[in-house]
Design brief:
five-stranded parallel β-sheet; 5 strands; alpha/beta; 216 residues
């Protein structure tokens, strides 16, 4: 694989989608081939699973079933979208990946993180990102953003504040395990400042990509 895989993580309302779009525009402007995608989703099968997972009507969904549905969507996504794009030499920017399962179902739901890692690494075929950008944002500010958006709150977003605080703590704990691949970005600042830090954090990966392509 000659491409690069960068993932955006964080609690709901942290601004992942906005920052991913800005980085995609920045990279495209520099001439990088970019593929933007998301989880759960990214494929026809994955989008159907996403509708089920996020629909507030399915409040009876138990944590184990929820975890395996996310893993199923991920397996489809990696095989059908991410790996082909990386093989084609693209920079893949993904809104959520394995760390979301560890943070939400592990730290949030109380499932065993080790088990979730095994299941999701198997689903992803062992694929891990070169860079994980964690947008750190407090739950209260995130809910303010979601409420201002005017859209309906989904099943996960509607969980109690304590759940989202555990998820946030989970992301920070995961980042502390590997400072080489993870960057924690303070997302409580203006969009432009956050974007600058994201570009700076991605520079090492992007420069390596550019150098490799020049050699080719």
């Amino acid at each position: 694989m000659t491409g690069k895989f960068i993932v955006f993580e964080g609690i709901d309302g942290s601004g992942k989608t906005t920052q991913l779009k800005l980085l995609a525009e920045h990279l495209t402007g520099r001439g990088f081939p970019v593929r933007v995608t998301r989880e759960p989703g990214g494929t026809r099968v994955g989008e159907q699973i996403r509708e089920l997972l996020l629909n507030p009507q399915y409040s009876e969904l138990v944590p184990m079933a929820e975890a395996f549905l996310y893993a199923a969507a991920r397996a489809q996504h990696v095989a059908q979208v991410i790996l082909p794009a990386l093989t084609e030499g693209k920079v893949v920017l993904c809104d959520r990946f394995i760390d979301s399962s560890l943070a939400y179902q592990g730290f949030g739901r109380g499932m065993e993180v080790g088990l979730l890692e095994q299941v999701n690494l198997a689903a992803a075929g062992g694929l891990v990102p070169e860079l994980v950008l964690i947008l750190d944002f407090c739950r209260e500010h995130g809910m303010d953003r979601l409420n201002r958006s005017g859209r309906e709150i989904d099943r996960i977003e509607g969980e109690a504040g304590a759940f989202h605080r555990r998820v946030r703590s989970g992301f920070l704990t995961l980042a502390a395990r590997d400072s080489r691949r993870y960057r924690v970005i303070n997302a409580c600042r203006p969009v432009g400042q956050v974007h600058q830090d994201i570009v700076k954090a991605a520079e090492e990966v992007l420069n390596a990509f550019s150098t490799g392509n020049n050699r080719a």
